[in-house]
Task: structure prediction
Amino acid sequence: MNDLPVRQGLGAAAPLGDTLPAAWYADPAIFAKERTAIFHRHWQLFAHESRLPDPGDYFAGVLAGFPIVVLRGRDGRLRGFHNVCRHRAAQLVPDGVGHSKSLVCPYHGWSYDGDGKLIRARDFGDDPGLDTGAMHLFPVRTETWKGLIFVCFDLDAPALVDWLGPIAAMAKDYPLERYRFYRDKLRDVAVDWKAYGDNYLEGYHLELMHPGLCAAIDVSQYMIDVHRREEFFYLYGPRRDDGLTQGLYFYRFPVLMLNLYDWGASIATIDALGPGRMLHSNWYLFEDLSPATKAERDRITDWAIEIVSEDIAVVTWVQRNLNTGVYDRGRLSPKHEHALKGFQDMARDGVAAYDSGWRPRLRAG
Ligand code: FES
Ligand SMILES: [Fe+2]
Result:
C-alpha cells in the first residue's frame, strides 16, 4: 500500500461509493465482532497521569466491557489489572479515583499488593490446595505517552508508541506531558461509535452545524489527511485572524481524538458500549491551572464543549434513523467525505479480520 497520506479538501476526487449499511450501526452481531477485533486489539485511552500522582493512587473504570484498575505502585510505576478478585470475582475497588496501600476485596477481604500479588486470604481456613502464588490479579497491558495512560487487552499488540506511529513525532513540539487535568465531560448517548467517527471525519457539515467553530477557523481551507496504513487522520483547520485558537488535530482509529494546543489540550475517546450506544469522554488539560486563568480556561472549555454538543445532537438524530431500517445506505461526497470513507474501510477491515478467524490473545498461556 502507498505510504503517502491521501488528502481531502482540495477539490473533487474520484467517486467514493456508498456508506456502510445502516445495520452496521445497530446490529449486535456486528458489534460483537468490533468489540473483539477492534476494541480488544487497539490501545485505548484510560486515564490521565495527573489524576494518580502518588504511590497508592488508582483509577478504576470499565473499558470495552472489562472492569479495570490502574494503580501507582510504591516504586512509582503504573500497573493495570482486571478489577476482579481471584476468590469469587468481586470488583476490588469502586470506579473512579482513589487511594489505597493495598487492594482489599470488599467481599471477603482478600488483599493484594501494588504488584497484584495476593498477600492475604483473610480467615480462609486450612486448604493445602490454595496456591496463593497463582492467585495474582490478572494484568492488563498499561503504558503511558506524555501523561496519557493507555491500556490494551491484546498481548500481541505493538507497544503504545508504535501504535501511535507518526503521531508521536508529529506532536513532539507540544508539551502535552506538562499539561494537567482540569475537567472532563462524559456523555452516555444513544450513538454508535462509528456514527460519531463518521461525523468527526468530514468537514462537509461544519458551515451548517458549527457557527462557533467557523468563527475560529477558516473552514474553506479545512483538510483531512488519511494515513490508511497507520490508521490515523491528520485534520487541518487554520485559525482565522481573530480566531480563538490553533492547534494540531489527530484522530487515531478507532476512537482516539487528540487536539493539541499551545495552552493545553482537548483529548477525547469513546467507549463503545453496544450497537448504537457509546460513552464519549472528553478531557480538558491546561498547562496553567492557576486561579488567575480560570475565567479563560472556562471560556475555552465552554466553547469546545458546545461544539461537541452540536455534533452529539446531529448524530443522535442520525442514529435514530439508522435504527429504523427505513434507510440503508447513502452516497459519499467525493469532495468532502474521503476521510470518512477511510474510517469506514478501517471498520470493515476489523470485521473482516474477525470473519477470517483472527482473535486477540487476551490471556497468557
Ligand atoms: S470475592 Fe474477593 S475475597 Fe471473596
Ligand atoms: Fe462536527
